[in-house]
Design goal:
The structure holds two protein chains of two kinds.
Chain A: H1 2-21, H2 29-37, H3 44-79, H4 91-105, H5 113-132, H6 140-164, H7 167-178, H8 186-205, H9 207-213, H10 217-222, H11 227-249, H12 254-267, H13 271-295, H14 304-322
Chain B: H1 2-6, H2 8-14, H3 19-45, H4 53-61, H5 67-101, H6 113-128, H7 132-155, H8 163-187, H9 189-200, H10 208-227, H11 229-236, H12 239-244, H13 249-271, H14 276-289, H15 293-317, H16 326-345
Helix pairs in contact in B: 2-3, 3-5, 3-15, 4-5, 5-10, 5-11, 5-13, 5-14, 5-15, 6-7, 6-8, 6-9, 7-8, 7-13, 8-9, 10-13, 14-15, 14-16, 15-16
Classes of the chains: A mainly alpha, B mainly alpha.
Chain lengths: ~325, ~350
Amino acid sequence: MKRVVASLVLILALLFLASIGYGDHPVTIEELIAVLSRPIGTNPQIEMIVFDLRLPRVLLALLVGAGLAVAGAIAQAVMRNPLAEPGILGINAGAALAAVIVIVALHDAPIHLLPWAGFGGAMAMAAAIYGLSWRNGTTSLRIILIGIGLSALSGAATTFLAVSGDIHDVQRAMIWLAGSVYHADRAGVQVLALWLVAPLALALLSARELDLIRFGDDVAQSLGQRVNLIRALMILLCTLLSGASVAAAGLIGFVGLVAPHMARRLVGPAHADLIPVSALIGAALVMAADLAGRTIIAPAQLPAGIVTALIGSPFFAYLLWSRRHLAT
Amino acid sequence: MAVIASRPSKATSTGGPAVSADGVRATSLAVLLLLVLAASVWSVTLGASHVSVPDVLSAIFAFDGSREHLVVRSLRLPRVLAGLLTGSALAVAGAIMQAATNNPLASPGLLGINAGAAFAVVMATSLFGTGSGTSVWFAFAGAAAAAIVAYGLGSAGRGGATPLKLVLAGAVLTTFLSSLTTAILILDETTLDTVRLWTAGSLSGRTMAQVAGVSPYILIGLLAAMIFRRHIMTLSLGTGIARSVGQNPILWRGLVVVIVILLAGGAVALAGPVGFVGLVVPHVARLTVGVDYRWIIPHSAAGGALLVVIADAVGRTVLASHSFPVGVTMAILGAPFFIWLARRNGGRRP
């Protein structure tokens, strides 16, 4: 556990430095130290590159990755399904529909409306799924089934808009849907950080409850857990974490599914270890993806959401098949 | 459809002790099949020019070359047949996937089939600028290749193709391929414009030659699913039980993957990556006839065909747009019913 965390933190630090340094205008380590040690205003150009362009972007990638990964770990525990990810609660479907409505149907809507629309769509969808699946309490299976149904409905609306809308708008919507951290600014990063702190801490504190609920409703109940209450709280946490991440960066889908699995390969299924390690892996994945997406085919850029999947899946495959085989 | 209709009588005789429950299920299957037949005929009569039912029948059995007969034979019949084939193929493939992986989230697309087909079609359109004529075969090839890779990844290493490894390998491959597809579409607007209707799932412009070319794969897949439905039932009970009753789960999971490739590959070639049928129709079947896959499979086949044919007919007439994607209509018609059903019956067993 300690070794895993230490090496992940090291990887994160390296990625952080690389993301600050590489780009159209490289910043060397000496320049970076100089910018940090001297008073503001000595070298405005490099200060602008570091503090206004690259730093917010790296921090946004870090926050989004950590948020999505922890949300995924919670979803997999509560749903008891290895395919579970935040999207199962309708977050992606709701955010996608809201964003496509704003971009395609409203045409020239102001751009700052987009995060709020995404967040609102995600929340509304998750609330609808949870509300519809409540009948003297919920069950994981019913939440999954209702989620499939509602996601199909809103997916149909999204597809309809994508097929009938103006092709330029549709392409803009696709870029947002692919998930990216292009547009990071300091204010946005601060809002997201404040928003994520409490849910992340709560997720860590509820590691034991997650361990319990993973055994199944009956076992958890007999061990004294109030299953419906805990499930509702965990779903709320998961929705807050992933809804905020999606609002800030669009649909970065792969992290929530894969980071918890990677963490499970590395430190086992206990959530006290799993949650922090998932967060670190998620952060590293999105940071690496953004770095690769903006440097490899420069000057063109690929959205981080796409590169996350492109670099994450081979790595995941390696982890899955190089270590001992899975039970079940 | 004759294949499906001929099976239930045998199933009732070999079925379990609950003969009366099986009787109800056989009746419901017969009603479903009649509905499919009625919906198909109705769908052929609909369109820009109305064709009466006797004319439809004479166009099929006594073709005389008149304009109406030509419309029926060259436009409407292929479209309805394509709908029947894709609907039943996707629903059965979904049922089999859910049985073999023991996962309610499994769909035929999970093996990377839809993502592989979409990637192949987008690549072909982007590189060669092909129209819809050849996309059928690109889609089929892409689907098969992706599924084989997913299965290879899922069964590599110790332990063989366990359900967990299979679904994870499929999910990873799906994300990988669809990210590549999105990357191409983001950088290439012309291709996006050409393929966006296809990616929504559409039956418009299917020719009889395409239907005839793909139908053998789907029919073989449906036949195999019906023949092996008892083995699929055993597989759905989990590796432990399957082994203890003498089944070799690894072998049968491999066979199931082949059947799914035939069915879903054929379907995605005909109609594009339609997600809803394969995921939802097996659940509807399970919620109505119970957990017995010997009944879920035929019910899924009939239900899937019914859903796609009706959705396509509604899309063509009520919305009066020839190219309205059937995938969208299907979700609008089917999802509310599914949600209602899931709320009423879902989650009774943990």
